[in-house]
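Shipment paperwork, digital attachment
Item: protein structure file
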Amino acid sequence: MLDENLPTFFFRPSSDNPLKSFLYFTHHGSEPAPEYLFQKVDPALPQSKNKYASALGDPVAQDVIFGEVLIEPEFQQPTLSAAEIRAQNGVTPPPVPLIPDGFTIQLYNPDQQVTVRGEKSAWTGKESWEFEMPQQSFRRPSASKLDRQRSDEVIASLAPKTVFKWKRDGKFSKDMTCYMTGTSVNGKKSKDPDITVAMFKHGREHAITIYEPNLQRVEVEDRKGLEVVFLLSAEVIREIYLSPSRDSFNISGVAPGRRKNSRPHPGTSSSPTPASHVMSGAMGNVPPAKTTSPLTQQPTPPLGPSDQAAIDAETRRLQAIVEQEEREREKRDRAEQRRIKRMLEEEERERQRREAEVAKETERLRREYGVEGQDFGPPPALPPRSTAGPSSRDAGRPPAQSPRPNAGQSSFEPPPRPSSAEPRTHGGGLSRLLHLGSPQPQSQPRKDGRRRGHSSEGPNMLKKKSTLF
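Attachment content:
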């Protein structure tokens, strides 16, 4: 219990009927007292087969129903493998029900239908169930006959609605919290901050707590109907989605067994519920059947020779099918292995053929062009580098510039002789390139046909060093 001062409803199963549960109400720490009766339809009735039906009524006058739920699921034939069919001896399995995404709660006095739609978050995987309650459910006093002739469903469809949503507290938790999330007018919803209005606690004695401080912010005229929707929707969600039983939709038609150590109270009748007490939407006005299920009347008869022969023949047929599938699978595997082996051999032959073509073309080019003329010999030797540095006297002095020629002097020099006419010097073409590339001083017109800088100048003449070496 969250707080004993808050309104809380406890679900306690009945001791004499496993299809009924009493809802005990406590508030401000009061002693729990029965407030509602939650009952499910008798699965032995033919009208309840393949259906889920439950109702919330009065604990004393059990023919008074405040609201009910009827779910008729769709069925689908399961798809089984050959091994599963062989395990079941070839017997076709029964169809399985598909759990619907939502259900509808039918309220009475005034008549109103509340649709509960389920959804699952793609990010967190948490499930939630949303429903809407009209803000105005009762007719206003009017002297007009037209107003009195209008049905309650028309009034509820035109009124603004308040949106509520049951959310699971966690992906693996079975506890839920109901929030008021906004309003809806003509199908257009407006999102508001979530306001907690109810909490469901799952357990051996599950309970629903109404968060009374926030009910003042809920603009719903039918507070009793809202309470019924809280209780009925939470219990149906628990039985169908959170903790479904093996036979939630009464497929077998067998009533659940009585709990151990449970005895009926003296003076109570163990007969089925009268027709007037049964939910109208699920049962109609058909009286309950007096006979029990055929499964409990007599044991299963033994199989005759013809039936056993049919079962054996079906078993042999299934075994032959399985063996044929295995042989075909082995045949496909062997064919695939042979195909892969051939493909690898073809790739190897293609690689060898390309290598042979490359070698053949290389040999042809070698025979046609040969290797003569491709050996240029050792590279020419470079001149020795000078190791003597400039004197300290000339260290800070810039290099001497050649004098510019006078106007009367001619700067024309005869072109150099071709290298083929000169004797080959040591160092090859690189020495000649360095010799020609170095700046040469401008020479005066020759008088005696000799170079400038006669040997008479002696050691006063300095040779200019190369800019590269």
